[in-house]
Amino acid sequence: MKLMIDRGVLLKTLAHAQSVVERRNTIPILSNLKLEVANGKVSVAATDMEIGLTESAMADPASEDGSATAPAHTLYDIVRKLPDGAQVEIALDAMAERLTVRAGRSNFQLSVLPTEDFPSLADGDLPVNFRMAARDLRALIDRTRFAISTEETRYYLNGIFIHKAEHEGVQVLRAVATDGHRLARAEAPLPDGAADMPGVIVPRKTVGELRKLLDEAGDDDVEISLSETKIRFVLGDIVLGSKLIDGAFPDYERVIPSGNDKFMQLDRQAFKDAVDRVSTISTEKSRGVKLAMQPGALVVSASNAESGAASEEIEADYDDAELEIGFNSRYLLDIANQIEGDVAELSFSDPASPTILRDKADASALYVLMPMRV
């Protein structure tokens, strides 16, 4: 195998692939990428046995067909440090079990492992297939992934639950994430072909890798194929496949309160800035702030036995009974960052019940936040 390729093209491809590879591996081959040259193209593959990524790119016509493996992070770091515009040559010396990387006067020798040891990335039968705009998928992820749980014991919360649902008589594709303290729900129009999809939980790492790729997809469509155990995303020359979380996502509808009868509307940016400033004084552990609702205003406050106290009043459209509720300020800010409109709407019931937060200009997203003692 001999690969001749522009440094910039190779770097982009390696950046995507090495991101999938874990830094520490008990199985040596999983630390490697697989390079395969055929018909003037190079295909780069990486996997951690849960996620697999394959990307193809055009190679120089002088390249020679063949395949090899290479240490993922080492190869990426080498190419990253080469000068812009460099022409990179990667050649396999099968006898010496070495991979030579050359560019200009730079010359590297890398150890290789047998290509036959590299795991197959076949996804099997994926009966449900549909396409959706990259911007819609990006919005679903951005509005929900901050609420994914990191608690490994509740593994079924370690991802985004994507499923078909109905909202006000309209079929939608819904994404939900929760960590038990907050819940995020977002919706997009149901794509053609998704009517028979099962509800699936896409793992946190897969969500993160997909989100990076979506940044480069622009306004292109993403091809999505899935079964009850696996999912595949195709973005141009990139194929990202993943196992799904094997578990039942909880009945999240029961967490969304239906009896919140007190409503407040306020400027989203003013609210976010007030919470951010006041939380400076809150304790490092709890990050607690108190929201005091009163006619025409909201008072955000925090106190700390060591640091002191802080409060800030902002205008609000509210004409119900006075009410005080405590929240984790970081959770409030996470939600406020996802509200794109100018006006945030909060609905309450009492200090011990969950609060609903919405974007007044966009009904496709809803957030639920549990109160805390402050």
Order of helices and strands: EHEEEEHEEEEHEEEEHEEEEHEEEEHEEE
Strand arrangement in the largest pleated sheet: 5-2-3-4-16-15-14-9
Shape-level CATH architecture of the largest domain: Roll
Helix content range: 10-25%
- Described by the principal axes of the CA atoms, the overall outline is elongated
The number of helical segments is 6
Secondary-structure-derived class: alpha+beta
Beta-strand residue fraction: 35-45%
List the helices and strands and how they pair.
Elements: E1 2-6, H1 7-20, E2 32-38, E3 41-47, E4 51-58, E5 66-71, H2 72-81, E6 87-93, E7 98-103, E8 106-111, E9 128-133, H3 134-144, E10 159-167, E11 170-178, E12 182-189, E13 200-203, H4 204-217, E14 221-226, E15 230-235, E16 238-243, E17 262-267, H5 268-278, E18 288-294, E19 297-304, E20 308-315, E21 323-328, H6 329-338, E22 343-348, E23 355-359, E24 362-369
Helix pairs in contact: 1-2, 3-4, 5-6
